[in-house]
């Protein structure tokens, strides 16, 4: 069933479990995520991010994700992640996405608030939930890598003010996490997560979940993280599944699909079990 973010994250916050958000840039990835969620009777969040649109355009993602979510036997939120422009966010809303992250984290604080408050006002009238980001989650490499990530950590005092003034439904926090492959084990600031969760009273989001340890996830969820973003892990798993299929003699795209989907399913299974959202 197609739902918005609140219908998934508010119960997660109350019962202290986490829910995975998985980017799905093709039908096989989407099938693997939703079928696994159904098998484990778990809610799930699925979608794409603006940085991934060169791979699969937004309208094409909507074409397969929205009907699949509606048919699912478990709650499925279709989420547009890291929207960088209001135009693209509105396009996602018009296509049927039920949740939007408008990422204004690189803007000045007051401008971030102004932009998010405007987006939240528009989306809430349409039953669409909104995620914001305060502080800035950088990348592990490339142009997005931060030299001193701690300079961009989410400030608890600002977080409380930000949530009150924007009305966002969920808040992505910068607490030592980063996008992509971790070169060294990250050190999450769990005290900061706990403080922000208490100050804001809304579900918190951990971006850059791929590569964290099981212990990091468990502790982060216990301190107030409700949504965990995973992409690199399932992307790499799909590649390894295809490689295994080729090694075992699969000679067509059709023959490789089961290898790809089963490899992704195994990662999703493990995350659902670890986050505590399934049976």
How would you describe this structure in keywords?
globular, single chain, alpha/beta, 279 residues
What does this structure look like?
The structure is a single chain. The protein has one domain: Alpha-Beta Barrel (TIM Barrel), CATH 3.20.20.70. Helix content is 48%, strand content 16%. The protein contains 10 helices and 9 strands. The protein has helices at 5-15, 27-39, 58-71, 86-95, 109-124, 156-166, 190-200, 214-223, 232-247, 253-275, and strands at 2-3, 19-23, 44-49, 76-83, 99-102, 129-134, 170-173, 204-206, 225-230. Helix 2 links the parallel strand 2 (19-23) and strand 3 (44-49). 50% of the residues are buried.
**Which sequence of strands runs across the widest sheet?**
2-3-4-5-6-7-8-9
> In CATH terms, what is the architecture?
Alpha-Beta Barrel
State the total count of DSSP E strands: 9
Task: Name the average pLDDT.
Answer: 91
* Rg of Cα set: 18 Å
The assigned structural class equals: alpha/beta
Count of DSSP H/I helices: 10
CATH fold node name = TIM Barrel
CATH level-4 homologous superfamily: Aldolase class I
Sheet-strand content, in percent, reads 15-25%
Distance between the termini: 18 Å
Proportion in helices: 40-55%
Task: Outline the biggest β-sheet.
Answer: 8 strands, parallel, barrel
Order of helices and strands: EHEHEHEHEHEHEHEHEHH
Number of domains: 1
CATH class: Alpha Beta
- Runs in which pLDDT lies below 50 for 5 or more consecutive residues are 139-146, 179-184
What characteristic shape results from the CA principal axes? globular
């Amino acid at each position: 069933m197609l739902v918005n973010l609140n219908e998934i994250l508010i119960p997660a916050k109350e019962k202290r479990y986490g829910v995975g958000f998985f980017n799905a840039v093709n039908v096989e990835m989407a099938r693997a995520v939703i079928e696994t969620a159904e098998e484990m009777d778990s809610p799930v969040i699925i979608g794409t991010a603006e940085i991934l649109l060169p791979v699969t355009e937004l309208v094409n993602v909507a074409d397969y994700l929205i009907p699949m979510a509606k048919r699912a036997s478990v709650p499925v939120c279709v989420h547009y992640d890291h929207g960088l422009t209001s135009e693209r966010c509105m396009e996602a809303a018009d296509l049927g996405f039920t949740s939007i992250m408008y990422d204004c984290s690189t803007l000045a604080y007051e401008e971030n608030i102004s932009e998010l408050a405007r987006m939240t006002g528009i989306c809430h009238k349409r039953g669409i939930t909104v995620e914001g980001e305060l502080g800035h989650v950088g990348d592990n490499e490339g142009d997005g890598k931060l030299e001193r990530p701690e300079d961009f950590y989410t400030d608890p005092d600002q977080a409380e003010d930000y949530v009150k003034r924007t009305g966002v439904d969920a808040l992505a926090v910068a607490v030592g996490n980063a996008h992509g492959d971790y070169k060294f084990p990250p050190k999450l600031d769990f005290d900061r997560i706990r403080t922000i969760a208490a100050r804001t009273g809304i579900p918190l989001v951990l971006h850059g979940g791929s590569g964290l340890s099981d212990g990091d996830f468990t502790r982060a969820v216990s301190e107030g993280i409700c949504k965990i973003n995973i992409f690199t892990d399932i992307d790499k798993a799909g590649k390894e599944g295809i490689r295994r299929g080729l090694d075992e003699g699969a000679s067509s795209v059709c023959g490789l699909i089961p290898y790809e989907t089963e490899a992704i399913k195994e990662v999703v299974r493990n995350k659902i079990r670890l986050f505590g959202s399934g049976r």
